[in-house]
């Protein structure tokens, strides 16, 4: 009995000693040193907002396209029997391009001409009969009045008057019927004349002709095809001129005018063009103003790229910064101004971009320092050290 008790006491003493050692080691452990980290300072390149007198010349690149394009189609249905032109061929105004089978349309013209002739003959006949009816009615009126004046002397006289009166009524009815027939025929004559003109137009529409001098760009039908009225069958372009299409911002559009002469660079060569169209209301999606510049097509083809130089109004004391200093977020524009070693994110209103300079309309003052580039990784309020760079870089 003593031996188990001794072992239990020994085990308890060992556990107690172990706990004592662990607690002693925990209390005497070395304390970690507190390291005070210095706040991180970001190095940025800064530039000064400066005011300059500039004569802006904006460069815009656009695509050359035909000055005038016509998508031609037939206005009547039929089988194509003649294809007289091919893509690339020059054509003159009024030149026949394609022709449909016109047999049915010629028959329609003949049929309407016959109806018109028949109606005109009926009108002439009824007018002649109406003249005779009027004469007969007048004679009947005279006879009836004569019998009335003779008085009522006998039964035979009354019977004669009644007969004369009935004859007068019949002749008056015939006259009215003929007058109505003439009016109806005249209305029918108008309808048939319109139907004849329509048939003649449809006959003419079986011939597709060039609406102006130009070049055939596409022919999308073959002889033997049955053509409907809606699809385009020929595309014709005006080959004497081309137009350069570009889209510009509102401040650029405000400085331009219709008829203004502009310089266009194409493959290193300069040509003069004329501003022919400028949309005053900006596009709802891009908020830009489309414009068109017409220029001679000598040696040029649609699809080539052209760069137009757009001279704007001279600006005195314009505030400029590098374009890379702008931060665009959710439709707004910001810059980071350095103030007392910290960044201040500030909203600005940009103007046009001129070469390597960005005009600022409001939000900055001359002489203020701002971050010149890499603004996407910065945030408001952080501490920075500034490294100056050349203004306008």
UniProtKB/TrEMBL annotation:
It comes from the Bacteria. Coiled coil: none annotated. It is found in: Cell envelope. GO terms for cellular component: efflux pump complex. GO terms for molecular function: efflux transmembrane transporter activity. Residues 68-230 form the Multidrug resistance protein MdtA-like barrel-sandwich hybrid domain. Keywords: Transport. Residues 318-371 form the Multidrug resistance protein MdtA-like C-terminal permuted SH3 domain. Belongs to the membrane fusion protein (MFP) (TC 8.A.1) family. This is Efflux RND transporter periplasmic adaptor subunit. It comes from endosymbiont of Escarpia spicata. The lineage of its organism: Bacteria, Pseudomonadati, Pseudomonadota, Gammaproteobacteria, sulfur-oxidizing symbionts.
